[in-house]
Amino acid sequence: MARRRYTPRLKAQVVLEVLSGGKTPGQVAKAYGVHPNSVQLWSGRRRSSPGTRR
Questions:
Q1: Interval 1-28: pLDDT, tens
Q2: In angstroms, rounded to a whole number, what is the distance separating the alpha carbons of residues 23 and 5?
Q3: Residue 14: C-alpha distances to residues 1, 2, 46 (Å)
Q4: What is the pLDDT, as a whole number, of residue 50?
């Protein structure tokens, strides 16, 4: 099975929703159908280097 790829736009939406503080990372992950570890990873990258795209 191939690895799932997520667009930068989706990642940004997920991270912004987590950072808004309304929901937990787990709730956001479930809503978007991604793994909670991915949400944590994307959020950490966004906080550590906001000017770079990964």
A1: 788 899 999 999 999 999 998 899 999 9
A2: 23
A3: 24, 22, 11
A4: 55
